[in-house]
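Lab notebook, page 48
Experiment: co-folding of the full assembly
Goal: obtain a model of how the components sit together before planning crosslinking
Operator: M.T.
Materials (sequences as entered):
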Amino acid sequence: MSSHRFSRNLSRRVVLKGAAALSGLQLASPFIIRARGETPLRIGMVDPLTGVYAAVAQNEVSGARLAVEQINAKGGILGRPIELLVEDSANDVGTGVQKTRKLIERDEVPFIIGDVNSGIAQAMAQVTAEKKTLHIVAGGHTDGITGKDCKWNVYRVCNTTRMEANSVSDLLFTKYGKKWHFVTPDYAFGHTLQEACAENLKKLGGTVTGNELTPLGTSDFSAYLIKARAAKPDVLLLLVQGSDMVNCLKQIVQFGIDKQIHVAGTQQELESLNALPPEARIGVWMFEWYWKQPNTPHLAEFVSDIRKRTGGKVPTARTWFGYTSMHSLALVANREKTIDSVKLARALGDFELPDEVKLQPNKCYYRKGDHQLMTSAFVGEALSKGAGDPEDLFRVYTIVAGDKTSPAVSETGCTLQWPA
Amino acid sequence: MTQLLLFNVTNGLIIGAFYVLMALGLSLILNLSNVINFAHGGFLVAGGYIAYSITPYVGFWGALLVAPLLTAAIGLAVERVLIRPLYGRDPLYGLLLTFGLAFIFEDGTRFIWGAQGKPVTIPAFLAQPLSDEFFFITGYRLFMVAMVAVSVALLFVLLRYTRLGIRIRAGTLDLETVAALGINVAMLRSLNFSVGVFLAGLSGVLAAGQLGLEPTMGSGLLMPSFIAIIVGGVGSLPGTWVDC
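Observation: model returned without errors.
Model output:
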C-alpha cells in the first residue's frame, strides 16, 4: 500500500508539475534580484598570521574587522554588506601569491589588502595588476611598492622605508653621532631601509662602520653584535622587526652594549615594545601611528572600540593600517558608486582621509603620482614603563607630516602605466 | 682580528651548549622509539610558555624545575595516545604525525598565549655581563652552560648506572631481546620519550630567559639540533654531544 502511494507521488505528472513550479519561481525575478543585491561584497586580506610577523598581522586584521563592522552598520558598500576573507600568507612569498590568486579567481573579490612582508606584498602586486584588482598594501614598507615597481592598481597606507629613514636621520645624527652601524634584515624591506639611512648619513657627512645582514627569524644575534661593537660606532641602528627586534634588543641589553653605544633605529612598533622586558625598552625611533595623541578628533572612540574587541589591548600602528585600508576602499567606492578597479584607482589619487579615519593631526592623503599615503611619522623614544597605562610605552617628541618625510614623486622612480 | 675570532669561537661554544639539550632529547627518542620527533620544538615552546605562566606563583627557580616536568607529562600523554599506535610501522608515519603536531603546538600556543611575544625576566644578578672585554659572556649564558653540564652529567648517570638507563641502552641495541627478557617495552618507550621531552622543556625555559617567548621560536631552534644529531651520527649520544 505504502509502495503504491510512494509510486503515485512520484509519477511523471507530479515531476512535471514540480519542474514547472520551479521555472515559475525562477521567472519571479524581482524577488530573486533583490536577494542578489544583498549578497555580501567580499574583500580579500592576505597577511602572515603565522610566523615572525604574526602579532602585527593579527592587529592589522583586527583593525580591518572593526572597519568592516562600522561600514556595514552604515549600509556597507553600495548597499551590500562587506564580508572580509582573511588568508594566511605564512610569511612565505609563494603562499601569499597562491592565496591572492585564490581570493581573486575563486572568491571573486574585487579588492585585496596585504601583506605585512614587503617581499610578499610586491609579489602580490604582480598578481593583482595582472588580474586588474584594486590592491591596498597596508603594511609592507619597501620603497619599490610605490617607487620603481609602482602599479596603477596598488596603493599603500604605511610609510615607505625612505620616509622612515628621513623622519629620524637628522635627529640621530645631531643627537647621537656620525658613525653608524646597522643590523639589517636580509630581505627587500631591510635593504631599502638601510640604503636610505646610509644615503642620508652620507649627505650629513657621517660614515657607515658596517652593516650586519641577518636572516629573518634570527634568534641569536650575538655574533653580529660582537662585530658591531668591535667597529666602535656612535650609533647602532636596528632595522630588524618583529621577534627579531625583540631578540636583538634583549641581547644588546644583556651584553651591556647600550651603555657604550647609542641604540636606536627607524621603525619601532608597540607589539615589539610590549614583548620586551622593561630594561630593554630603549632608544629613539619612529612610530607610524600612536594611540595616545592629545586633541585628535575621534581617536578616543577608536581606541575604545578596539579595546572592547581585544580584551583591553590598545590599537597599534598595524591596527590603524588595517582600519584605514578598509575604510579607504569603502569611502571611495561609495563616493564613486562603483566597484570598478580602474575607476576607483583613479579616484583614490589625491583622496584625502576624513578625521574619523586619519586619526592624526596632519593632513593625510593618497598622493596621485605614486599612490603613497602621505601619513605622519611619530618620532620619539621608548619608555621602560608606561606612566598612566601599561601600554603607553612611547614618548612622542614630534609628529612629522608625510609631505615632509616623503621624497618628491619624481625622486621615487614611479611611473604609473594605466590600462588602455 | 684574532680577538674577534676568539670572541666568535667562545660565543659559538656557548650557543652550542644550548643545542646539546635539544639534540640529546631528540637523539634519545630517535634511538629507542625510532621516531623523528619534529614536534620537539613544540615541546620546547610549551616548556617556555608554561614557565612564563607559573613564574608569578613559583618564581624563576621554581619554574625551571616545574615547567620541564609538566612538559614531560604532556609528552607522556602524547606518546601514549598518539605515538604508541605507530610503533612498528614505517617511520614515515611518526614523522608525519610529529610534523603535524609541530603545527598544532605552534597554533595552540598562539591561541592560548597570543601571537605577541612575551617578555621573560631573569634574576637580575644573572643578567649582567661578566666583564667589559668579554661582554658577550653574561651570567645567564654561563648559567645555561652550567645547567647543560649538570643535565648531561645526570643523563649520563641515568643511562649508565640506573636500571632504567641500562634498559634504554639495551633497547636501543636490540629491542626484541629486551622484550623477550620480560621487560615492559611500552613502558620503557614512554619513560624514554618523557625524558627526551623533559630536556626539550628545560631548553624552552632556558631559551625563554635568553630570547623571550614567541610561538614560532621552536622551529628556529630545532633545525640546528637536527643537524647536530645527523653530523654526530644517528644513534650516538656522545656523537651528538660532541657535535654541538
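Interpretation: Residues 39-123+138-243 of chain B form one domain.
Next step: discuss with group before ordering constructs.
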